[in-house]
Write a structure and sequence with these properties.
This protein is an alpha+beta fold. The protein has four helices and ten strands, in the order ααβββαβββαββββ. Strands 3-2-1-6-5-4 form a six-stranded antiparallel sheet, with helices on both faces. It has a four-stranded antiparallel sheet with strand order 8-7-10-9, with helices on one face.
């Protein structure tokens, strides 16, 4: 009975975490769309020059997204208009870390950070191609924190043209913390994966974060749109 209650607590915690982060990225995308729409609909849809970005309001929206999400470690806006609108391949990244005491925001462009091109990252590509919310990870974020991370991303479309992605980052260590706090015993055997079967957390040996689950010795115990929980057979 105690074990069942513990598993329910884990599931409830994970559902709150994934649902809140999903809502945060979609809300940030909506707010950025509303902010940028007047800048691109006054004329034919086109790329936004760097000097045209309303930087203070963008930072304020990102800061609000972080302050209202207790799980997020970072949030931002990855701007890149579709190629026909943006022949120079201009891109910009506005990013803020929750732990930054001074609220410092990264503002990166090809001129300031030549080795970063988020247009090749899966959370950006999949969000753009699906035209909807996408949850990516776990993966090692070599750009921001060198830690296992998950990213909740939502696209920004104006006049049916793609203008970038709003993203919320969650450290896998933060997800682990939620699970461990909900467990009645650290010896409880379970494995949690993302919706594609990539391992996020495990109390079983031989199941590493980031690996694809391929074991036939586990049974699916709970299925959510963004995660799955498995128990031993």
């Amino acid at each position: 009975m105690k074990s069942t209650a513990s598993l329910h607590a884990v599931i409830d915690s994970l559902e709150q975490l994934f649902d809140q982060c999903s809502r945060s990225s979609q809300q940030l995308a909506l707010q950025l769309t509303q902010l940028l729409t007047p800048l691109v609909t006054a004329v034919l849809p086109t790329a936004l020059p760097v000097h045209a970005f309303p930087t203070p309001p963008i930072k304020s929206l990102i800061r609000d997204a972080l302050s209202t999400n207790r799980f997020a470690s970072g949030a931002g806006f990855a701007y890149h208009a579709d190629s026909p609108l943006n022949p120079q391949a201009t891109w910009s990244l506005f990013w803020m870390y929750k732990e930054a005491a001074d609220g410092t925001t990264l503002e990166l462009t090809p001129l300031t950070h030549q080795h970063l091109d988020f247009r090749t990252f899966e959370w950006f590509l999949k969000t753009k191609s699906s035209k909807g919310h996408y949850f990516h990870g776990p993966y090692v974020d070599y750009i921001c924190n060198t830690s296992y991370t998950m990213t909740s991303a939502a696209p920004i479309f104006i006049e049916e043209c793609f203008y970038g992605v709003a993203a919320i980052d969650i450290l896998v260590s933060r997800i682990e913390e939620e699970i461990v706090n909900a467990l009645s015993s650290p010896r409880t055997k379970l494995v949690v994966t993302n919706s594609f079967g990539r391992i996020i957390f495990s109390t079983l040996t031989g199941y590493r974060v980031g690996d694809i689950l391929g074991s036939s010795t586990l049974r699916l115990s709970h299925q959510h749109a963004l995660f799955s929980l498995y128990l031993p057979l």
